[in-house]
Write a structure and sequence with these properties.
By secondary structure, the protein is of the alpha+beta class. The protein contains 9 helices and 9 strands. It has helices spanning 7-10, 98-107, 152-157, 165-184, 241-244, 252-267, 276-285, 301-313, 324-336, and strands at 62-71, 74-81, 84-92, 122-126, 138-145, 187-188, 197-199, 205-207, 214-215.
C-alpha cells in the first residue's frame, strides 16, 4: 500500500481545490446542496458509455457478481452491468493507514478520463455503497471493462505454451503504446510489472491497476520526490533506482519497470533471487540488473538487439533511458525483422 499522497498529486489543479473526501466523495465536483455526485453518462441503447465515466454506480443494474481474484489491494469480481460484462473492483481499507487507502482509491482514477486500446477503461467509481452491497473492509468500488482473468504473470510463469519472439515483441509494443499515451497525459503508473498487464481474449495487452500512479503537475517532471511520495511505487524488483533513493519522479521510472518486465517476457525467469534488502542495495549501489548474457532468449539477432535496448531502459540515470515515444520505433523495427 502506498504512503499518503497529496490530493494535488492525484487530481488536476482545476479539480482538487473543490474535492470533498467525505464518505460519498468524487474527484469530479462538489455536489450542490449535498446532493449525490453525478456525471452525465451517455448510454445509447442502454449500453455502457464508451467515452465518459460516472461517479454513480446503478447498483440495481449489477447482475451475476462472481469473484475473480483478490490480493492486498482488495478483490475483483466479474459482473453484468447495463448489458455488458464488467470487472468490479473493491479497494480494501487499510486499518493501519486509512488515508493511504483513500488516496490509493483516488490514484486508481488518475487514468479514468483516458481512453486507449492498451489501457483498462474505467466505467464508474464511487465510495457510496448500499448496505446490501456493503463491505466494511472496502473503501470504494470501481467498475472497469472486463478484460479477463489472464495477465502477463500467468502467460510468463503459468503457461506451458511457447512464447516466441513475435509474441513477446507484440506484447512489449502494446505496453509501450499504453505508456506513451499515459505519459503524454502526465500520468506515471509506478507499478508496471507482469501482474498489472492484463491480456485480453484477442491477445492484446492492457495496463491496469493504477493504485500507485501519480498525475504530474506541469513542469515538475524529474523534480525531487516530496516526503509524501518517498515510498510510492509498487514492487521492489521493478522499481527504478532513483525512486529507491528518493531523488526524482518522472515517466522514465515506468521505462525502467518496462525493461524488467520485457526481460521476464524474453526469459520467463524471475529477475532476482536473494534477500529483498540485498537486492535493493545492489540495484542502487552496484547497478544490479537481470542477466542478459548467456540467456537463451537473447541468442538471436533480434534478441541481441532487444538486449541492447534493455540496457538503455534500465540505465541507472533516468535521463539516459528512452521515452516511451522513443521506444516504439525500436520495438516496431524489431518486429519487422525476419
Amino acid at each position: 500500500m502506498p504512503s499518503p499522497i497529496p490530493v494535488s498529486r492525484l487530481l488536476p489543479r482545476d479539480i482538487y481545490p473543490s474535492v470533498d473526501i467525505g464518505t460519498c466523495s468524487s474527484p469530479l465536483a462538489k455536489p450542490p446542496h449535498g446532493s449525490t455526485l453525478q456525471v452525465p453518462v451517455q448510454r445509447p441503447h442502454g449500453r455502457v458509455a464508451s467515452r465518459l465515466w460516472s461517479s454513480v454506480i446503478h447498483w440495481k443494474e449489477l447482475r451475476s457478481v462472481e469473484p475473480v481474484g483478490s490480493g492486498g489491494f482488495g478483490s475483483v469480481y466479474r459482473a453484468e452491468y447495463l448489458g455488458e460484462t464488467v470487472a468490479l473492483k473493491r479497494v480494501k481499507k487499510c486499518t493501519k493507514n486509512k488515508l493511504a487507502s483513500r488516496q490509493s482509491f483516488w490514484a486508481e482514477l488518475n487514468a479514468a478520463h483516458l481512453r486507449h486500446s492498451n489501457i483498462v477503461r474505467v466505467i464508474a467509481a464511487t465510495t457510496c455503497v448500499p448496505a446490501d452491497f456493503g463491505d466494511e473492509s472496502s473503501i470504494g468500488t470501481i467498475l472497469m471493462e472486463f478484460v479477463g482473468s489472464r495477465n502477463l504473470q500467468h502467460v510468463i510463469y503459468g503457461c506451458t505454451e511457447p512464447l516466441g519472439e513475435d509474441r513477446w515483441l507484440r506484447y512489449a509494443t502494446d505496453m509501450a503504446r499504453g505508456l506513451r499515451f499515459l505519459h503524454s497525459h502526465r500520468v506515471v503508473h509506478l507499478d508496471i510489472k507482469p501482474a498489472n498487464v492484463l491480456v485480453s481474449a484477442q491477445d492484446v495487452c492492457k495496463i491496469a491497476d493504477f493504485g500507485c500512479s501519480v498525475k504530474l503537475d506541469r513542469g515538475c517532471e524529474g523534480s525531487a520526490i516530496s516526503p509524501h511520495l518517498s515510498h510510492v511505487g509498487g514492487t521492489y524488483t521493478h522499481r527504478a533506482p532513483e525512486l529507491l533513493k528518493g531523488e526524482g519522479l518522472s515517466p522514465k521510472a515506468d521505462i525502467f519497470s518496462f525493461g524488467i518486465t520485457l526481460w521476464q517476457l524474453v526469459t520467463r525467469e524471475q529477475p532476482y533471487t536473494g534477500d529483498r534488502q540485498h537486492v535493493l542495495y545492489a540495484v542502487v549501489a552496484h547497478n544490479l540488473r537481470p542477466r542478459v548474457q548467456e540467456q537463451p532468449g537473447f541468442g538471436s539477432e533480434r534478441g541481441r538487439r532487444c538486449g541492447a535496448l534493455l540496457s538503455r531502459c534500465w540505465s541507472a540515470e533516468g535521463r539516459c533511458r528512452p521515452s516511451a515515444d522513443e521506444l516504439l520505433p525500436h520495438l516496431e523495427l524489431l518486429r519487422s525483422q525476419v
